Amino acid sequence: MRITFEIDENYLNHFLIIMNEARQTARRLEPEDIVAAAEQLLEEAPKSDAPGFIVERIDKLRLMIRMVSDIEWRLPHQETTRVLNALAYFAEPEDLIPDHIPGLGFLDDAIMIELVVRELRHEIEAYQDFCDYRERLAAKGDGSHASREGWLNARRKELQARMRRRRGRGRRILG
Prior knowledge:
single chain
């Protein structure tokens, strides 16, 4: 069976209010506690036989946790705070829908994860690019070590090479 629903503006605002309340509460928590609470959700969701669309969101949560925990990425403080604020909802002991309800218990978590992913799309995209770069480096097998600075330098070189290629094509057209 397939059920599709659309969240209207009023209901979405309700989720945003709850997210903001969680962020206020999170200011009193240590970053490790916020990450640990999100990791707890990662442990519980697979045990519940959650539907596929929820599992997909849970995987995105896993990526955000890795993003703030990845020593090589070294996310700057301001961005780390944004991610931790986004993860704050998962540190709340009370869910909108209790997690133990079969099939629906993680629905509120999935919706929150989707909202967070949209809010952090640029940070997530950059981290995924970094992970791809790190994997390419590891595949070389020459012992190279990935770092944020190395990624930025490599990315800058790629963009400059593209700039030169495009400039070269422009000369042929003009010449």
